[in-house]
């Protein structure tokens, strides 16, 4: 789509109404909304369709792992120990992706490990969106001293390297459940969305329709939630969706470093960490969780980008 | 300009103190005892424990500890000693930093050259095959977690092809660090490519580009002078803030390739709760981050004359 | 990053062996391929400009006046733009058949363009001196220093105060009127044969508008250039133009020498435009407005494109496209340069 905007401008110049001579009435078919337009765009976007299907399946797997496998992810049969190389042709069997060092089905662990990643990703995203969204809105809308204080605190938390901070927090816990990891990631993760929301609110605050609402006597709450929030949500949703993939990746990275989820919890990161020692002898233990992990991250990033492109035609 | 720099430096002080305090509190108030850890399974003599604690000042209130630590660090460049073996933290850092720095520089160079190169190609061919291929390639790079990318590189180039050693030696040779640097810089490379692609594609449609064509300028000049100057501004910003991120991200890459840099030191000091070492390391990272962002702000004013600092 | 291209500076003979108009557009068609269909922006436009002559092209947004100019200049985005038919003769040579390099050498040097919005049309990160000097460096191979001196000269020429002090300023540091002067200076730099000014004063304050138009007219006389003035403002045109072409939905609907058009329009659309100018002697009366909206170029009305808005439309207007025919006096006497594309031009001009 080369020069789409310039073209659009040229076409607009060619099609658009305003002229000195006459009053302009909006044509009926132009009554479009940002989200309506975005949705029309998304339905035709292959990236969106592919990522939606992927995410649908990931959610299904994490909710009902039993639909996809009947083998236990925790009970190993030591007769398969290390000998259980993948039989990729034999898709129906539980061992088609091989077995790990304790004779457990890699496929079954893959299916049952999905839930941890999805919970971490979704919960961290929800928490940081709520915290970051509120703080960003307050800082952006009220400005002045409020903004200065919120912004400096954000700067302070942003200054701590994300991964290192997560490692320090997690190291304090000996039994690291999913919720501990969620806490550790949210503890430092909220800064990004605070900044995004603050920026969006500051821009929108200056829009004419906000001034108009103020002139009509709308209260602060009404302006914030009826006029500013709906318009500021677009960039926040995009960044949050992409960040969701990032949190899943971060969880796996922490698990790989030995500071993420710990043993009884089944997760791709734990399996990858365990597979590292066998990288030369039994690569499948490392390979399949890595692929699943990457595909999951890919799905969320693709979704976020598709939404961004749909919402902001300038980026195309 | 001078006043702006002064103001920015003043603004940096609370952020610097806040960040170091935050990391200090995280290290020293979260559960876990570095001294008890020294003795492993043995039950230590309470008097010995108390003495070691006292020697390291661990028996004082945490804010007093922070004050002592910061004054010693800022006034005497003394980061304290490690609890485990009494080694000065400055020695530990001096041993670990050079190779990480080397790795970061290499990763940054790769990110800059290839990221920008791919971005320019994609931006000029927006919507065509090359653009889509680069888009998909960068999407994949972004989606694959760094340690997975590390293992892919390691198993393909070290185990299958035998081009590189799986683990980096201690000689700090540039050649050995290329593979880890690619892994470290990969993510940023993808971001740089996408960012420069977007800004180029956007600026291609700017009115002043149409003017440049109407002036009868040759294509090389239109792209090289008029398009580039404008498109590089946001890319420079990203590159600047990324230096600090690269150093922080080295933890994972170094562990995959067994590089003996700050990554290993950070990991060990976290697990062993060597607070002094960890806080010292993070302090340096924070300083790098703050100074590069100041530098970028100033560079921004040079690149974009519309920005003026009061 | 500075690539300096030394272009051979062979002086091209002015005037040359070519007789006739400087620029002649014949049966030009331009269309845009969009997701919603093909937008026919220009549908068979003919016009010509001679040296020293000013042609005003008048029309609403979407009439195709700017697209025609962009096609002449060779700055249409192709794709999605396409020129399926037509010829554009510059000094007798069809520019649409030239190579890209040949066209590039004409751009800026022989035909120059002034854009509407000077702020966005000038590069924000380069000084105005650099952007002016660039013309001399690229087309005449001057050194950086000599080009800068020429830039100061040019800025003096367009009456920018303290030119030598301001040559190293950036576009955003100038006022709107001064910026437009810089655009004019840039177009004039190489003393081209033809200048296309696309709404050069629309973005300016009314007082500044007059100054800028006067300057443009003065310089045009001095260099004996052809000028195509694109505008939607009838007021701007009257003092400057020699002849007018009124465009509607990608076609010329009326052509006339400037004063004749004001006196006796031969097309209902032109009449509507003239009637919608506010006049002091009609104070208190309701202002006339052409009813309806400009046509959607993806779906132009059949017959005369103006028929849905025309007060005089009859059945024939909805079925047959009127040709652009010569307009004559009531007694058949010739009216040189006058043409109208209306089935009922006689009634309109003589009614």
From TrEMBL, chain A:
Residues spanning the membrane: 47-68, 118-144, 156-173, 179-197, 228-248, 285-304
Keywords: Cell membrane, Membrane, Transmembrane, Transmembrane helix, Transport
Protein's name according to its UniProt entry: ABC transporter permease
Species this chain originates from: Streptomyces pyxinae
Membrane topology according to the record: Multi-pass membrane protein
Location(s), subcellular: Cell membrane
Major location category of this protein: membrane
UniProt xrefs under PANTHER family: ABC TRANSPORTER PERMEASE PROTEIN, OLIGOPEPTIDE TRANSPORT SYSTEM PERMEASE PROTEIN APPC
TrEMBL record, chain B:
Keywords on record: Cell membrane, Membrane, Transmembrane, Transmembrane helix, Transport
TM regions (residue ranges): 12-30, 101-122, 134-157, 177-195, 231-252, 278-303
Organism: Streptomyces pyxinae
Record CDD domains: TM_PBP2 (cd06261)
Subcellular locations according to the entry: Cell membrane
Membership in a protein family: Belongs to the binding-protein-dependent transport system permease family.
Domain ABC transmembrane type-1 positions: 97-300
Name of this protein: ABC transporter permease
Bilayer topology: Multi-pass membrane protein
PANTHER family tied to this protein: DIPEPTIDE TRANSPORT SYSTEM PERMEASE PROTEIN DPPB-RELATED, DIPEPTIDE-TRANSPORT INTEGRAL MEMBRANE PROTEIN ABC TRANSPORTER DPPB-RELATED
UniProt xrefs under Gene3D superfamilies: MetI-like
From TrEMBL, chain C:
Database matches in Pfam families: ABC_tran (PF00005), oligo_HPY (PF08352)
Cell location: Cell membrane
GO molecular function: ATP binding
Keyword Oxidoreductase assigned: no
CDD domains (UniProt xref): ABC_NikE_OppD_transporters
Domain ABC transporter positions: 23-274
Keywords tagged on the record: ATP-binding, Cell membrane, Membrane, Nucleotide-binding, Transport
Superkingdom of this protein's organism: Bacteria
Main location: membrane
Annotated membrane topology: Peripheral membrane protein
InterPro entries: AAA+_ATPase, ABC_Ni/Peptide_Import, ABC_transporter-like_ATP-bd, ABC_transporter-like_CS, Oligopep_ABC_C, P-loop_NTPase
Family note: Belongs to the ABC transporter superfamily.
Stated name of the protein: ABC transporter ATP-binding protein
